[in-house]
């Protein structure tokens, strides 16, 4: 093509090459929702012709597609945005339980919710983390603002909570902040009980629920698998989950320390009052290896319900009228009732026989008001601990965990850099495809020129040989750059080097000017929505 008047041939060549490059990456016309129109431009127009190469009398011009118009309109900011990771939801730090329970999603619905979210035009991948303390959605959005709007609207619809109220209480984090938050969640740093282990199991369940679900894609899947790895590493390297940080767990831990051999295996255990705190004591006892205990209560229903949860533990119910008889047989007694009067007075404890092997009977009283009369601690046959004694244990453990949390923060920062580098390295796949396509266009064009100069007498064998030669040259020229665009995901230095190479290649060959991939993703979403 000849240069336009007033332009240099170099500028024209660059423009032509760039235009060809963009056209080659554009989706095929048959896949775009528009029709073509024809109109004529006279060759006598001086701007569109020169004396050497007059244009034909009519030129076929493509009508811009809706996506191309969209790209050049005021909404251009959406197609030029890069895909981003977003965390949006409610948790125990930002929203009351009344709101969280309206948005709670049972585990058996997680897979369907992923599919529902990914049906939105600007949501590419998604995952749901719904527990008693949080309901958070992690997703990859083609457009940050539109993705947030779509997911917020969905949350309002399924919960019945107004959008202004949701926005007042929601967590909303982007990219590295969203990733950092999930890593903290998996490590137990965002839990009420610092370092608790149940949340890591729940994060693992997200990955299990997402297996085989199309919307649980490479980025979100990689994010949650990395979070699991971070959670494990934090617990292994800092031991943040060791040490009791709740009154109920501290009560059990203290009792265990006072028993011979630090074991409940040979101890007779009595729990008085299976209310909220008492139930937690029972669960901690089971977790620490206690396989049989007697539980005293006014009614049997609560005890039976706990027995259903802990089927591998023998839980024996006794009515409140038999409390002193049960105490006479017990080595360790936990009390946790709302009684305003002491259940164990100095007088009735004095009447109890010695505990097994003549040891002092251990009372762990976590009730307010106290269930064990203060004077009992003066008896030679009893050893009494109350909530204030346990608070010292809890406070000491909390201080220790806070120190370990600081160590965990350093691990999370390190792992965050690795994940961000891995996520960025995914762009090398696109760069490799673009670079190959760029080289292939040059090869095909030069081969066509060569064959046209050789005339029509070129045999098929010669054409095949020329084709093989051109392919061999291109492949050998591409080999070096391609090797430097592939990396070991476990090697952080390798990732950084690959990203530098990718950016350099994109700059040198203008590979990142194309937005056709975003166009194509949005087009697919639009087509899906029409069906």
The biggest beta sheet reads: 6 strands, parallel
Q: What value does the Rg take, in angstroms?
A: 35 Å
Please list the strands of the largest sheet in the order they lie side by side: 7-6-5-8-9-10
Helical fraction: 40-55%
Q: How many β-strand runs?
A: 10
Beta-strand percentage?
A: 5-15%
User: What's the order of the H and E elements?
Assistant: HHHEHHEEHHEHHHHEHEHEHEHEEHHHHH
Low-confidence stretches: 1-80
N-to-C span: 43 Å
- The 3D shape can be described as elongated
- Kindly state the mean pLDDT as a whole number? 80
Task: Give the count of helical stretches.
Answer: 20
Keywords:
531 residues, alpha/beta, six-stranded parallel sheet, 10 strands, 11% strand
Question: Could you give the topology of this structure?
Answer:
Elements: H1 9-25, H2 66-72, H3 76-79, E1 84-91, H4 97-103, H5 110-118, E2 123-130, E3 134-141, H6 144-159, H7 163-169, E4 171-174, H8 175-187, H9 198-210, H10 218-238, H11 247-258, E5 269-272, H12 276-287, E6 292-297, H13 301-309, E7 314-319, H14 323-329, E8 332-335, H15 346-350, E9 361-365, E10 382-385, H16 387-425, H17 427-454, H18 460-483, H19 492-509, H20 516-530
Parallel strand pairs: 5-6, 5-8, 6-7, 8-9, 9-10
Antiparallel strand pairs: 1-3, 1-4, 2-3
């Amino acid at each position: 093509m000849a240069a336009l008047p007033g332009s240099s041939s170099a500028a024209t060549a660059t423009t032509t090459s760039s235009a060809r490059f963009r056209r080659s990456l554009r989706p095929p016309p048959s896949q775009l929702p528009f029709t073509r129109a024809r109109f004529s431009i006279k060759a006598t127009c001086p701007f569109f012709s020169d004396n050497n190469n007059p244009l034909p009398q009519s030129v076929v011009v493509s009508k811009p597609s809706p996506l191309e118009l969209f790209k050049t309109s005021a909404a251009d900011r959406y197609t030029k945005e890069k895909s981003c990771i977003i965390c949006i939801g409610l948790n125990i730090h930002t929203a009351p339980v009344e709101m969280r329970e309206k948005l709670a999603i049972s585990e058996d619905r997680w897979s369907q919710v992923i599919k529902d979210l990914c049906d939105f035009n600007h949501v590419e991948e998604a995952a749901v983390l719904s527990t008693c303390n949080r309901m958070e959605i992690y997703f990859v959005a083609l457009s940050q603002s539109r993705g947030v709007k779509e997911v917020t609207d969905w949350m309002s619809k399924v919960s019945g909570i107004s959008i202004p109220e949701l926005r007042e209480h929601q967590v909303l984090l982007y990219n590295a902040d969203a990733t950092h938050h999930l890593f903290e969640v998996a490590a137990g740093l965002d839990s009420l009980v610092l370092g608790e282990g149940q949340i890591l199991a729940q994060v693992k369940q997200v990955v299990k629920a997402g297996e085989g679900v199309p919307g649980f894609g490479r980025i979100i899947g990689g994010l949650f698998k990395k979070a699991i790895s971070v959670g494990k590493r934090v617990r292994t390297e800092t031991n943040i989950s060791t040490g009791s940080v709740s009154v109920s767990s501290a009560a059990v831990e203290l009792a265990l320390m006072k028993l011979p051999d630090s074991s409940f295996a040979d101890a007779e255990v009595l729990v008085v009052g299976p209310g909220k705190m008492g139930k937690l004591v029972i669960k901690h006892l089971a977790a620490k290896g206690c396989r049989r205990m007697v539980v005293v209560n006014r009614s049997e229903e609560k005890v039976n319900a706990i027995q259903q949860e802990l089927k591998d533990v023998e839980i024996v119910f006794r009515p409140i009228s038999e409390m002193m008889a049960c105490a006479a047989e017990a080595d360790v007694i936990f009390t946790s009732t709302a009684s305003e009067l002491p259940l164990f007075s100095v007088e009735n404890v004095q009447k109890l026989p010695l505990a097994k092997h003549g040891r002092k009977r251990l009372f762990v009283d976590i009730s307010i008001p106290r269930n064990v009369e203060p004077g009992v601690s003066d008896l030679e046959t009893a050893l009494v601990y109350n909530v204030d004694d346990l608070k010292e244990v809890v406070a000491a453990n909390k201080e220790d965990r806070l120190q370990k949390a600081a160590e965990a923060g350093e691990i999370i920062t390190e792992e965050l850099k690795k994940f961000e580098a891995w996520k960025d390295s995914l762009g090398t796949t696109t760069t490799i495809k673009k670079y190959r396509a760029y080289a292939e266009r040059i090869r095909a064009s030069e081969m066509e020129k060569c064959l046209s100069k050789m005339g029509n007498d070129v045999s098929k064998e010669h054409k095949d040989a020329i084709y093989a030669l051109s392919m061999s040259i291109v492949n050998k020229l591409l080999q070096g750059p391609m090797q430097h665009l592939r990396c070991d995901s476990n090697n952080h230095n390798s990732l950084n080097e690959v990203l530098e190479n990718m950016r350099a290649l994109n700059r040198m060959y203008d590979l990142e000017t194309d937005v056709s991939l975003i166009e194509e993703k949005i087009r697919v979403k639009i087509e899906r929505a029409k069906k």
